[in-house]
Amino acid sequence: MGRSLTDDLKVRLNGRTKHELIEGMIVRSPHQMAAEKMVAALEVYPLLLLLLAHDHPTKIWILDRGEAPSSAEILNDSVRQKRWHAGRLCIDDCDGITEVVGNYVAVVVSWRTLLAMRHEFAHAVTTFFSPTTRQKLNTLYREAKTRGAFTEPLASESIGEYVACGLSYFFFPDLREELKEVDPDLHDLVEDLLRQADEISEMISEPAPHPAKLR
Ligand SMILES: [Zn+2]
Known about the structure:
With about 220 residues, the chain is of the alpha/beta class. The chain has a single domain, classed as Collagenase (Catalytic Domain), CATH 3.40.390.10. Helix content is about 55%, strand content about 10%. The strands form two sheets. It has a four-stranded mixed beta sheet. The chain has a two-stranded antiparallel sheet with strand order 3-4. β5 and β6 form a beta hairpin. α3 (about 30-40) packs across α6 (about 115-125). The longest helix has 21 residues, at about 185-205. The radius of gyration is 18 Å and the shape is globular. Bound molecules: zinc ion. Zinc ion (ZN) binds near residues 119 and 161.
């Protein structure tokens, strides 16, 4: 019998914790507290998604107060010149930005709010969604547009924003309730996706038999 996917993932994970994976993605933090807040923000994501993002790789650049997203050195000029939301926004109009740059996913966001940090990371996470999941999300987005019902205007801008808002809302009890009311199907799909990712996470992070590994 060949090795299963979860065995492979377990080898890949190699005992790394959420904390280690998140810290491993942070390439710049203005100060220690900002890095700690990022760890707290992203720890809500299933271990599996953190592993996939870390190893992709994903690079996280944390902005300090008053710093413009374009100042992040992990971005390149084509991202700096890009425009979003039907051309209305340029890079420094955005609170945060997540873009593929070369062979990595660049996440640039301020440390000020957990929601913004979780939202930007959600964009990175969608990179790893299966074609089937993408198709389901596209259908839900089309239906939401037909109904004209979104949790916030940003969610209506694109399928990417729709999903990032849905995912990040899910991690806050009050916003999650709002999501459930406004878009129950998206709420349920996100719930399913996270539950599946959590189940796999549990299988790959089984404690090693050696007690020394149980910290
Ligand atoms: Zn966004």
